[in-house]
Amino acid sequence: MIIAISILLFLLGSIVFILNSKSMKEEQEYVDNFKFMISDHDSKQEYYNIFNQISEQKKILDDFLYSLITKYLSENELYTMLPSGGLVNKKDKTNFFLIYFIEAILGLAIVYYLNEDKMKMLAFMVVFIIVNNIVIKMIFRTFFINEERRRIKTNFTYFLDLLATATKSGMTVELGLIAVSEYIGNMSSSLANYIKIYSNDISNNGFSIAGENLRKNLDLQEVKDFTAVLENAVESGAAVTDALRVLSKETRDFHFIETEEKIGKVNAKMGIPLIVFIMFPIIVEIIAPGVLNLVSKM
């Protein structure tokens, strides 16, 4: 039953894709000609090779899948978690959900083939869907969100330095945030995305509300300090550039202290393996001959 439904959905999706491709043919030809004019290719034959055609069709398919994802899954908890894990652009989101659905379908297919009883099969499928959703969220938090938070902490001082330079050059804070977000996208796409949102929020709601929203999205001490310093500097009329440079220096010092603490904990952690695997066998080796000699005389 599931295989038949999957095949039917695949056929319907293929028909919709073909009809949509035909309706966009003229527009696509215009776009292709324009791209050829601005490309580095010497001839249309070179530009319209099989690899370019596959790439273009893949892009159309990604756009179609992304429209479905945003339409039906935009309120899903997993979808809202993606920006926190560094998956900001539509290509990353589409690929993530594509892998997620393929993994879920394969899992359901395995459950279907391993169970002959329909009632047990349905029960196992429901349990699999629930457990799979929980496991995917846990994996995403562990390997994506936590890693992205670490990346944000590492690169936040560079963001502060760039913003201080932008404000010193005469930019407003809002324009400086937008300009800096373009540069730090390669360091942390999640931070760049949140900074853009923060800049737009400042323009619409002011520094106080924008800072509160940013702290909700990024619950980091560096972000709390940044929003507090920026709000105080704007309200008191102090120089934003000087405040940002001082904060950048303090943040670097704090990260340096954290690193020293981690290095100090390494010695304590190495003490237990040293005692268990080195000191204890040596002690046993020293004491064992005497104990054996004493036992043999008894």
Automatic annotation (TrEMBL):
Subcellular location: Cell membrane
InterPro entries attached to this UniProt entry: T2SS_GspF_dom
Cellular component GO terms, alphabetical: plasma membrane
Ranges for domain Type II secretion system protein GspF: 159-286
Membrane topology qualifier: Multi-pass membrane protein
Membrane-crossing residue ranges in chain numbering: 96-114, 121-140, 272-295
Primary residence: membrane
Keywords assigned by UniProt, alphabetized: Cell membrane, Membrane, Transmembrane, Transmembrane helix
Protein name listed in UniProt: Type II secretion system F family protein
